[in-house]
Amino acid sequence: MLNKTKIAVLVSGGGTNLQALINAQAGGIIKSGEIVLVVSNVPGAYALERARMADIDAVTLSRKALGGQAKFEEALQSELLSHGVELIVLAGFLSILSADFTSKWPDRIINIHPALIPSFCGKGFYGLHVHEAALAYGVKVTGATVHFVNEVPDGGKIIAQKPVYVRDGDTPETLQRRVMEEAEWVLLPEATEKISREILIKKERAKHMLDIGTLLRENTYPGRGIILGRSKDGKKAVVAYFIMGRSVNSRNRVFEATEDGIRTRAFDESKMEDPSLIIYHPVRVFEGSTIVTNGDQTDTIRDSMRAGHCYRHALHTRTFEPDGPNWTPRISGVVTPDGKYSLSILKSMDGDPECCCRYFFEYDNPIPGCGHFIHTYKRDGDPIPSFEGEPERIAIEADTPKEFAALLWDSLNADNKVSLYVSYIDIASGKADSVIINKNK
Fold first, then answer.
1. Helix (H, G, I), strand (E, B) or coil at 370
2. Is 208 a catalytic residue?
3. What is the pLDDT of residues 301-337, one digit of tens each?
4. Do residues 263 and 377 both lie within one domain?
5. Residue 157 and residue 100 in one domain
């Protein structure tokens, strides 16, 4: 079926949770996803028959028959990819997946556990063992948890929980049944729909994101460019800045690290003609915020923030660069400690040196895997036309700053590129992992 998240369900036994998912799909509770594959690691498991009766592809993959965990996961991955699976649901799957496998499916594997995590969970807690432990401990409330799966058994982020009261006279069997009926069979379909819908939303957003490599390869001279965004896992703020040059003076530069960011300097001091517009601090970090610009307005913004003002206040004291007839725009960006970011451009109106147009773009809820790209020039020319419109929305797929820097550097025009800076900033800790690439060495 079109426009639905493709789901694989992994099971080991009778498949009561699988049946709950099948019923929820038929009843319209799961409307954003479609179960396309059922996999059991136990030959003859009744769950396979449930799948066949629902006209769902079902396969058995035995770790023993395949020759171990690595071979099992290799065969499982092959089945998942051949069916176009986007979400894996563990519904009574009594086998621990390796870190190597789960790392290939970040936030794309969910599991139902018959207790309120962090109680009665982890290695050894499955099936009746969970309910035996709950009764032995004497808890008055138990329940079920749906969580993301990572390398730690039952250790992934919790998606949803539902409580179930323990009754006097409960046995492990009666408690197990009531937790299934009151919690598991309700919670798992609801969580599956929630995550399926989120995947669809991400896919729809991705349709409207441009490929930064293509943008750069198709433009021989975007000039100086700023990219701000969020890493694919949503945990890191992404900052990138590059410079290009057509003249000997512009090309005679390198980036070098400073205590609070980076600065430009002449590669060959004897060839430096005019340092006024090409020697500056493109990046400074101030009180956890990262400021990136294409000129000395980096310091203007920092000083304004130090005085208790915002970046807008600072930029209202500045205009575009005085380098007619190009009147190069001043582009600026600020990333706050929580990963929110803003971009701006100050540019002349149709080349008029008397009129400065100021545009500000603010992104309060950055999307994982998405960034915005603004650059000084629309394309090469004489005079060079200024950037127009909103910052371009791009996809950020690279997991590390090194990977992203390689993509950007390889895509920039070989003759005109000069220097590149990329930083991935961990939002939780504020720690930055940065890369500098210089053409001049």
1. strand
2. no
3. 999 999 999 999 999 999 999 999 999 999 999 999 9
4. yes
5. yes
